[in-house]
Amino acid sequence: MRADDVSRGVAARLRRQWPPLAAAVAAGLTFVVSGIIRHTYPFGDGPRSTNDLGQQVIPMYAHYRDILTGHGGDLFFNWSSGLGVPFLGDFMAYVGSTLSWITVIFPRDRVDLVLFLVDVLAIALAAGAMTAYLRYLRPGPAWLAVVAGMSYGACGWAIDDAAYMSVWLNGLVAFPVICLLCEWILRRRSTAALMVTPLVVALLWTSHFYTVYMATIGAAIVVVTRLLGYGATVSWRHRLTGAVRCIVAVGLGIALAAPLLLPTFDAVRAARPSPDAVFRPIGSLVFLARLMPGSEGVGTTPGLAVGTVVLLLALSFPFNRQVPARERIAWTATVVLTMLSLQIPITHEIWHGFDTPNGSPYRQAFIVAGMLVIVGWMSAAAGVRTVLTAVAPVGAVLLLYVETWHVRSTTTVSHRAVPVLVVLAVGVWLASRSPSWVRRGAVAVLVVAVFAEVSVSSAAIDARRSKILSAKAPWGDEHTALRSLVESAADWPTYRTAPGAQQTVNDPMLIGGQGPQYYSSTMPDLVSRQLLSLGFGYSSYGRATVDPRNPVVDAVFAVRSRVVVPPSGNARLERSDVPPLVTVRPATAWVSGDPGPFGTQESALGADVYTVPKVRGGRDRAVNVSDRRGTLTVAPAPGAGRPVEARLLASCTPGSEIWFAAPDFVGAVMVAGRGWVTNLPSAVKSPGLYAGAPMLRVGTVGAEGVAAVLIRVSTRTDLPAAPIGCLHPERLDAAVRSLSPADGPAVKVTGHGLTIRLRPSGTANSVVLGMIWIDGWRCSVDGGAGRTPDNRAGLIAIPTPAGASDVSCSYHPPGLGQGLAIGAAAALCLLLLGAVLALGGALLTPSWRGARARRPRPRA
For this UniProt entry, which segments traverse the membrane (predicted)? Predict the structure, then answer.
């Protein structure tokens, strides 16, 4: 091949590839510029880790980096959080597989920078993928394809909803990629298309199954619309066979991802449920107002904005007679019906997998944004040539602009950017018949203006959102000091070190250690209920735990050291004597008869350490305390001022510690040395459901033997029948000594398992792990067959016969076996399909090839 032929080939390839690359760079830069404008991290002191990004995503990325660098756990199990919880569901829900690996490139204390780069790269990938799809769908102006792709990648949904929940951006990437893959299959009908598509789809579905599920539905709608829009020269047989090929390829891709998907689905089903949410559509004007650039309505309205220019082009599509009528009707109906589907309860359920979320009910809005970009491109590629095609969308946008001026979601950017971009867009249209230098100049101005509009819109959205949602500071000196403190006390797996919740509820993942704190939508319901029964507090419907800092809980779960931050602000370590993580106990479990969390703690410890006395009310005319049907009722007397103080009294041994356990009590408690402490604030949503209070140490029983708890109430309040427990320190010390022999078992922890070396005993015993029992654990004794361990007061217990010396346990996510079987079957089907297609191609005669080549192809 001659050199000039090679150079021409390279030039042609660059001409095809530069628009997607340019769109990717431009979209990523708009996100960077918006951060510079806002002076947020990493361009200023303003925090950008809003809400879930700071509380969940960043800690889980830090933990994922630890896994990849061999510093604890694996994808199956997380030893750090919640006293031991599965991790695969969290990985799929918060981390994803597409871009998360870049966390290993950076130091651990730059995890905030990693998440910023993940956002930039995901937005860039989405823009590039959409541009590539548009260019494949229709030939048209390259600069306009760049503008369209950039507008999609940085659409309102991407910035307002997904940028602080970074894994959602994988759905934004998946939609144009799946559309492109199916278009490739429809056009080429090649072996390569059928073999590559399942692999890419599998990668997408493991990047974030939730939003990629929505992207797959959206791509299916696009494919159906494409098939309906074909001209009469394309037979229905040709259309249907193309659709079947797409279904097979995408279906195989989803099946290939089954080893991760099925365990994740099981984890979601077993997760702590939140109350059923009822979807309520918003008003039409409020809905349509989100088409305006710069509009913000996170969690309540759909982020539909794709910029003024693309919106004008999308609105021109129904009037553009350069597009065949069949396509105009099909696509216009598709976009309208898809927008309506966001507002109709049954289709809303379908979009969300029949599980209405408690927040952000319009998580599928990026599909509508993508469709607006597609129809806008199709109109522009055909040419906006008539006055009606140009004037109608301008009128529609200006009408929407006026009508939505005072809608809450619009911002100053919405008010200022729209008229400017409308004028510039009209100017470019008018300049289309001018000399080339005028056209190029007008286009350049418009492209710069669109870039500026997207950038300032992103900044405006972030500014408005920051007033609603709180943000966590990036890693700094305080984080480093806390991590050093935790590492200085490390004694895992013999004992745990709890970092507390100084920065986030997920500090065990962010800072390090092995604490009880944990916050995740995939928290196993069994773990949540068991922790709550032990006296833990909670928020987010029980999906986030609040440590009671109780010595009995510490003894049960081997929490030997914990980080404490006193009012002075200088973090320090508190140490206590506790049994090790693995203890050997009698074969028969001792069960406490005490009520509430006091009895649950005693059963888990295997010793009687509390006295739970009968509670009576003090003599106070301003408040009445009565015990009715197992409930202690505290009610202000008629005419008494609010709030009133009520004294709860009980008889206990002098010197014992007084603990108060009333998770649903809204009010304050007098705590020795601290004054009035809020048990549960009145601002919580659905007390006892959305949030619950941990059990609280309120003081010490005096020499007179009276345990007195002073509370404040504003309305009639129901408390548990036994809200007070008196802890005997000497009994707890004796229980700890009995479970801490000098020659205790030796324990080794692996990624998702542990091995225990026992001292042979002449009697049958039970090996108890300081971990919550969940489905998925299998244990064996002395190399015997694996079996499900016993549940002893919520803990993992393995019965051992006399003379047993070795115990091994491992955790495998439920559903993994079925997932592996489905994935293997899908891989085999894909190989067989490839072999059949390759063999068929080899046997195809030239005459058949010619016949196939003469078949009409869909309009490109």
Answer: 21-41, 83-106, 113-136, 142-160, 167-187, 207-228, 240-262, 297-317, 329-346, 361-380, 413-431, 820-845
